# Entry
Amino acid sequence: MTHFTVIAPPFTSHVRALEALAGGLLAKGHRVSWLHQADVRQVLSDPRIEFHAVGAATHPAGSLTLTVARAARPGGPLGLRRVIADVAAATDMLCREAPALLRWLDTEAVIADQMEAAGGLLARSLGLPFISVACALPVNRDPQVPLPVMPWGYAQDRRGERLNEGSARVYDWLMQPHARVIAGHAHAFGIAPCSTLAECLSPLAQISQTTASFDFARRRLPAHFHAVGPLRPPVADEPALDLAVDSGRPFIFASLGTLQGGRFGLFKRIAQACQALDAQLLLAHCNQLNAAQADALKRAGARWVTGFAPQRAALARADAAVSHAGLNTVLDALEAGTPVLALPIAFDQPGVAARLVHGGAGLQRLPALASAAGIEKSLRRLLETPSFSLRAEALGTDVRQSGGVGRAVDIVEAALRRRPSTQSREATHDAPAAAAAGTARLHAA
# Structure
């Protein structure tokens, strides 16, 4: 059996997807470790995963709360720069502190989230096989496919390709602080030059939570790229929806995810829209609102307001969903055949919303401009136009048949079997001393 170590961003949506993959590997008898700052231990829910904290000096216990708050509401240009600096700092910390610990753990393979460049950098520096996993939209670049953060659709002509090229240049300029960290550690590790996330991907296997039918058509994917659909536990392992839903009235499920769940004003407009529709609204704010705000949302029109709801069960019962266009929520909605009104806020959410509209399974509105009347109009259209449900069901068939965790585990195991065997590495048994020596070498480089 193989000892895998997961290197990923510290955000809940990424942790949950990779935790599901880890669970599949553990069920096959493999060993799984997870490296990150101490606060991530509290995000993990599977006690079988071994957690090892790094970054005590730069990312001490309690610091993740501020990082998450900045990511949830980056604000203007200065706020965005701070978020990018946080991403760069996390990659830098992992690249400096994880090498010696990976040796001491005798890690045999790395599961690397596409959004954390340290996974690929560390694996290459130590000669370890690694698998790249796209928990968000894939970062693989293609002239006809806009970057995940961009809100427009597939390039149909040269004009569209030029738009993608120009936006990629702007994005790369904004991401320069992160690019410098990636390039600096690639040089220090003595591996091939790289400076973008797309250049840190696995040559063995790349796994994506998307399906081919939901994503835009891509022409430059490697043969070892696999779209396996959502990485989730079996539906049977999740709780049922315990609500008295009136079958004679529309049932709407609304969630803005774990990062954006504190947007009270937007939730209020959603509640008002559902009240105007005489629809039953289940609103999940991921514990980001207080009791007074929850009560205010009930007065505005929400039937149920809760921190967390059994999302897949709620979406299976819902006639429509309102979402921030987080990939996890949208894929869960498609799995259930439920059309979505997307209100994309940040990160890859504009790209997810663009794909949802392209696929005919939903509509989108800009959150800042989405009035209660506008949300009502869009929801009414979703509820009264059968084609949206039909397209959601068609895309959902692919989601349900894509393989998920089981197929991902098979791909991981097959990739490692195909890799030529290498000489075993000598384990370092004095972890503190090894970590200090590795950090000193990196600083010297």
Observations:
- Residues 77-105 form the longest helix (29 residues).
- The chain has 17 helices and 13 strands.
- The CA atoms of residues 265 and 297 lie 9 Å apart.
